[in-house]
Amino acid sequence: MSDATAARLDHDDPLAKHRDLFVGAESSLVYFDGNSLGRPLRVTGERLARFVDGEWGGRLIRGWDERWFDLPLAVGDELARIVLGAGPGQTTVGDSTTVLLYKAMRAALAARPDRSEIVLDRDNFPTDRYLAQGVAEECGVRLRWIEVDTAGGVTAEQLAEAVGPDTALVLLSHVAYRSAWLADMGELTRIAHDAGALVLWDLSHSVGSVPIQLDACEVDLAVGCSYKYLNGGPGSPAFVYVAARHLERFTQPVQGWMGAADPFLMGPDYAPAEGIRRFLSGTPPIVGMLAMQDMLALLDEVGMAAVREKSVALTEYAVQVAGEVLAPAGVGLASPRDPDLRGGHVTLNHPLMREATAALWQRDVIPDYRDPHGLRLGLSPLSTSYDEVRRGVEAVREVLDGLPG
Ligand SMILES: *Cc1c(COP(=O)(O)O)cnc(C)c1O
């Protein structure tokens, strides 16, 4: 694979112009970790400065009445429209993914009191598994584990075998953090529903890179993070979606004043607010919601179909270059080869990938490492170039060739 191919792909890429909108685009650093922390958009600096001087510094406490009180729901509706395939009034922003997963799991179990199992897979993201273990203990339910291929993910057959009359909740990741396996959301949701169970989807590794249709798939609950492909910045708040048909009945256990029916009544007892606001707990992190609004505006302009097209082209190119440059050095693909089954990153296995990752960081090539032996190349559709992919994969080969072993 020559430089010329990457240059031609970048030249012909209708989305290439957007790359310059991101901080650091001009540097030669190769960034393969947009699936862990997306690059900031240049306009975000201005938005943050404007907020400090104007809204925060100028409006002070009046900001809550004027805009901030409803901002979690307003940004939630934007997320719903632009990246979640969901109608308004079902999504809110706040807390971390971990905390929202907890609230959503508890909400689901409370809605299925006569059932005793949570179904999940062994290779789900650690926080999902750890939370399920805690919730199971807390609520006296069992966990039913699906064993999965670490280079793949949960299939329809596996889920159909795991669910039954005891299943209260199925907890799944839309894109597997390790392999990039893209689950069939519609099919798996239908299988869970046929068994009478509810489904909670973790969208952290898909939102902003893979089109999502929560309403059309009849998803019950979903949670996702905003600092990966939504470029919200380190620790930016997560979002939770609860289907409108459930909102009247579902409740969550962190009964704070900001999710109460009338926060400023400050009454003696908790009563949940109407609608999705009841999934809030304490004062929402307003500053943390600013940066993701810039990325949402860009995704709205470009459209998720075009974003996915670029994402597939980038991962296809990475798989192809890795096949040519790295396969002869003993590197294997640990992601699905079929792009229809793959999200926005590519994982490559080699026994020395841990050492290789450390050496790559020294050279300003920034992928990350995941056991067992996996190098993850996270390719952010709007901020990664084909040239970056080629230079990064070639650097992996040079580093592997230089390692003793
Ligand atoms: C990144 C990620 C999380 C992160 O959870 P935090 O609470 O933000 O630390 C959770 N689940 C999945 C699948 C992820 O990829």
Automatic annotation (TrEMBL):
In this chain the Aminotransferase class V domain maps to 112-320
Q: What is its EC number?
A: 3.7.1.3
**EC class (word):** hydrolase
Q: Which Pfam families match?
A: Aminotran_5 (PF00266)
Which biological pathway? Amino-acid degradation; L-kynurenine degradation; L-alanine and anthranilate from L-kynurenine: step 1/1; Cofactor biosynthesis; NAD(+) biosynthesis; quinolinate from L-kynurenine: step 2/3
Catalysis performed (reactions): L-kynurenine + H2O = anthranilate + L-alanine + H(+); 3-hydroxy-L-kynurenine + H2O = 3-hydroxyanthranilate + L-alanine + H(+)
Named from the GO MF annotations, one term is: transaminase activity
Q: Does the keyword Zinc apply?
A: no
Q: Which residues form a coiled coil?
A: none
From which domain of life does this come? Bacteria
Q: Which UniProt keywords apply?
A: Aminotransferase, Hydrolase, Pyridine nucleotide biosynthesis, Pyridoxal phosphate, Transferase
Q: Which cofactor does it need?
A: pyridoxal 5'-phosphate
Query: What assembly does the database describe for this protein?
Result: Homodimer.
The family assignment reads: Belongs to the kynureninase family.
**Function as written in the Swiss-Prot or TrEMBL entry:** Catalyzes the cleavage of L-kynurenine (L-Kyn) and L-3-hydroxykynurenine (L-3OHKyn) into anthranilic acid (AA) and 3-hydroxyanthranilic acid (3-OHAA), respectively.
Protein name, UniProt field: Kynureninase
**Provenance organism:** Nocardioides koreensis
